[in-house]
Amino acid sequence: MVDIPTDAQTNRQVVRKRAEAKTIEPDSAITLVTVSIDEPDMETPRGDIDRLREALAKEAGIETLATDPVLLPRVQTILRKGHWTVTAAIHTDISSVPIMVALWPGEKQAVYGLAVDIGSTTIAAHLCNLQNGRTVSSAGTSNPQIRFGEDLMSRVSYVQMNPAKLPNLVKAVREAINALVGKLVGDVGAERADVLDATFVGNPVMHHLFLGIDPVELGGAPFALAASDAMILTARDLDLDLNPGARVYMLPCIAGHVGADAAAATLSESPYSLDETTLLVDVGTNAEIVLGNKNRLLAASSPTGPAFEGAEISSGQRAAPGAIERIRIDKDTLEPRFKVIGVDEWSDEEGFSEKIDSVGVTGICGSGIIEAVAEMYLAGLITEDGVIDGSMAAKTHRVRSEGRTFSYVIAEDGIEISILQTDIRAIQLAKGALYAGIKLLQDKLGTDHIDRIRFAGAFGSYIEPKYAMILGLIPDCALDGVSGVGNAAGTGARMALLNRGYRREIEETVHKIEKIETALEPKFQEHFVNAMALPNKVDPFINLRAAVELPEPKTPVEAEGTGDGRRRRRRRG
């Protein structure tokens, strides 16, 4: 196995997990307390640490204060270096006794916290000032575990087949996080030792691998988590290069395939406090879905597969410079125009030809394939069943025969980028699984109406709501009620980092969420079959039709090929 350093990769993945703007009232688990104590003398035989602890407890207004053992060898040196005036960092959480976790000579002005979202493809980290709550630096990187498997289940399979290699996956993600920390503290002129608290979120597999837990049980029913509740650990337990006494708060997981990232996104969007029914969905290899309002909240996961991330698509790739991310097709000429990551201009605009030479057109990413299929449907190039209409070859040279099916060519200068029938089928399977999962939650909630739809995650932020609905990725809703909320999991992690109250809030909420296992629900298959059509075989999509003119259904005989590669025969007379 050969590893290519991220910085050396050409057209490497664009990590889109910035810190979203959100005001968070600081109430950190870390408090800085500065005290002065008397020098020891022959009349006072008590130990320096004991006298310091008493002074700190009195100043902080707490009855009992523990000391992290990591400080024991260093306290006397620090006291004397500070001429008996020191600043202590005290960690206080409801679930633990207040404990002194760090100590500096003299006065200490600022300490920091770390909020990390460990995704299966990307890791995003935010450095926050624990005193004022500001996010001072953010950074992201590709998850190096990709070399052990592109998606979650392939990594679980890797561990199952190579149990002795589990430490390699654990080490890879921890080293990537340590590298991010180095960049973050360097950006603000701080030191690793200034980071005293951290929060981590991730899907269940990432959660387990980060903690060093074998994820094999998550690979099959009943998808048992080794641990689901919130927990507080030390950074040194996890080989994190922070202050030796730094604490790590792991947000709770919701269910076997609905993780701490979904819990954090739920905290960020707080549907449990709203009258309106909200759908929160994180589109990924395994989509995480939360639906409800202040009266009731349900959650499920749906096996969408990697198609939305560019995998299983003939010209698919991850979001990186050179990837087509936006597409429009003229209904009259059937000519496409597209936008590529790394170039501001559209393909038909002046300056595109000159600028595209620097990045090239290398493939199509998730948002691009969604728009491509939706635009092909609007232009009449495919039927509502997702079949490319071969008769359209008479109107455009871009519809080409591929044996017993057809394709549509988007770009033909340099590398040819086409949408094949198999690509459309992969997207149908993915969106059908997601929609079926959502419909199951609607059934359980007893409603056909959704007021708000929020796309969480980096990918969701780049999905155009209109095209997501045309595709039938999400249920009908007023288009202005659909939006992306960016890295909501990262926002939830920052909230839990900066305010202890949010930790209690999400812990209580997770215990109230009803978990639905889609694999055990008889109606999943029925919803899935209906959701294969564009936008859906039975759901009317009234709001969408009021905003977008959808094509009239084509009868099967008008299509020259089908999704399973067989021609349809015309009926006689």
TrEMBL record:
Q: Which Pfam families match?
A: RACo_C_ter, RACo_linker, Raco_middle
Q: Where in this chain does the entry annotate a coiled-coil region?
A: none
Q: Give the transmembrane region(s).
A: none
Q: Write down the InterPro entries for this protein, in alphabetical order.
A: Corrinoid_activation_enz, Raco-like_middle, Raco-like_middle_sf, RACo_C, RACo_linker
Disordered: region residues: 552-573
Domain RACo-like middle region residue range list: 112-267
Say which domain of life the source belongs to: Bacteria
Segments forming domain RACo C-terminal: 276-541
- Specify the RACo linker region domain's residue ranges: 19-109
Q: What is this protein called?
A: Putative metal-binding protein
Organism of provenance: Roseibium alexandrii (strain DSM 17067 / NCIMB 14079 / DFL-11) (Labrenzia alexandrii)
